[in-house]
Amino acid sequence: MEASTTTAAYPVTRRPIWERDRPRSSAITVSSPIGSTSMVTKENVETPRNTSAAVARRDERGMRSPDPGKRCDAGSFSSMTDSSHAEFRIVGGHPALDLVNTVTPRLRDGAAEHDYLTSPAELLDWSRRIGLIDLRDHSAIEGTWRSAPELAAKALGATLEIREATYDVLAPRAAGAVVAIDGVKRSQGSAFERLMLRWSAAAARSMLIPGADRERGVAELVVGTSPAQLIPDRLVVAAVELVRTVELRQLRACPVDDGGCGWLFLDRSRNGSRRWCAMEDCGTRAKIRKLGERRRATAVPQS
C-alpha cells in the first residue's frame, strides 16, 4: 500500500488489539491523517484473545540495559523484520503501561536484563503489535525513517524518555512496587516536566476536526500529523491520559520481592485480587520456587 504523508479521508475507527471484544464506552480516539485511527483505551485487558500461543512466552534473550537518552545509529534500522520482542507478553492493560513494560525486570536500582526497544525497527514492530498504528501508518513511518535515519533515532529517543518518565511518575504509587523514594533515577517533578514537554510538542502536531456520525462528542482529536514522530506523539498522549485518570487502587506492580518482574499493570479483576503480571509466567515461577523451598525445609536429613 502506498504511504501518504498528506491529509487523507478519515476512515471508520478500527479498534486496536487490546480493545477488541470490549465495549467502546471509555476510549479516547486518536487518529492520523496518514489514514489510520487508533484508540487509546482506559479499559484493562490481559493478553489478547487472538494472540498466538507463542506470544505467551516471555522472551529472555540478551543482557541489555535501558538508556532513555540512547540514540541508535542508522545501521540499526537496516532490518525491519529482525525483532527481539516478538514473544514477550502484553499485559499492562493500557498502551502507556505496555510501553513501561518493554524493560524487564523493573528493579529498585533501575538495572534491567533486557530492553525490548533498542532500535527503531523494534519500536515500529512493537507499535504495530499493540495496535498503536495500523499497516498504513507502518508503511508511512517506515518510509520516512528509512529515508531519514536521524528522524528514526530521534523518535526512539523520545519514546524511551516517555517510557522512563511514565514509570517514574507511576511506580511509586503502584501497589507491590519496590521503589525507594531516593532510588528513582529522576524525581517525579522532573518526570512530570518531561511528560509535559513531550505532550506539548505532540499537541502542536495535532488537530481537532469535526466528527461525523459519532454517538458521543462532536469532534475528533487527530494525533500524528507527522509520520516521523507519530509513535512517540501517540504514546505521550496515552501516557498523559493515564497519569491524569488512572484509578490508583487498580495500579499494581508484579512483586519483585516475591520473584516477580516489577512490570506495571491495571488490576480490573472482579475482586481486585490480581497479583502477577501473568499467572502463567511470574506467578507460576513463584509457586514452583515456594514449593521447592517447602520441600527442602521438610526434607529428612541424610544420616
Sheet-strand content, in percent, reads: 5-15%
Q: Can you list the strand order of the major beta sheet?
A: 2-1-6-5
Order of helices and strands: EEHEEHHHHEEHEEH
Radius of gyration: 20 Å
Mean pLDDT over the residues:
73
**What are the segments in which pLDDT stays under 50 over at least 5 consecutive residues?**
1-29, 35-75, 79-86
Apparent shape: elongated
Tally of alpha and pi helices = 7
Largest sheet: 4 strands, mixed
Multimeric status of the protein = single chain
Class derived from helix and strand content: alpha+beta
The total of beta strands comes to 8
Count of domains: 1
Q: Helicity, in percent? A: 25-40%
How far apart the termini lie comes to 74 Å
Give a brief outline of the structure.
With 303 residues, this protein is α+β, with helices and mostly antiparallel strands. The chain has helices spanning 95-100, 120-129, 135-147, 149-170, 188-204, 230-245, 279-298, and strands at 27-31, 37-41, 103-104, 114-115, 207-210, 219-222, 251-253, 264-266. Residues 1-29, 35-75 and 79-86 have low confidence and may be disordered.
